[in-house]
Automatic annotation (TrEMBL):
Species of the source: Niveibacterium umoris
Protein name in UniProt: DUF6129 domain-containing protein
Cross-referenced InterPro entries: DUF6129
Organism domain of life: Bacteria
Domain DUF6129: 26-74
Length: 91
């Protein structure tokens, strides 16, 4: 379940440039077993979608895997994983 406390923990794990470290998604999967994480560019996220949380150099979006295909979501009630979207300096 994705809660405000969980998002705070993930943001803390990604702070201080750690979001850009190689293998960060694998490290998060190990730290939070059973929670899917994926890494992408924020440029690949539809601009209409609001992040669940932001940190320096990244934004977190929910992943809903309830349907046939996974979909991004801004709703923590339907999110079952997180996309870590790396942001550019100019974003």
């Amino acid at each position: 379940m994705i809660t405000a406390d969980f998002l705070k923990q993930v943001c803390g794990a990604l702070a201080h440039g750690k979001a850009r470290q190689a293998g960060v998604d694998t490290a998060l999967r190990e730290a939070f077993p059973g929670m899917p994480f994926t890494l992408c560019s924020d440029n690949d996220i539809p601009s209409r979608l609001q992040p669940l949380a932001r940190g320096e150099g990244f934004a977190l979006y929910g992943i809903n895997t309830a349907g046939h295909c996974a979909a991004l979501t801004s709703n923590t009630d339907t999110a079952s994983g997180l996309a870590i979207a790396l942001t550019d300096d100019e974003d």
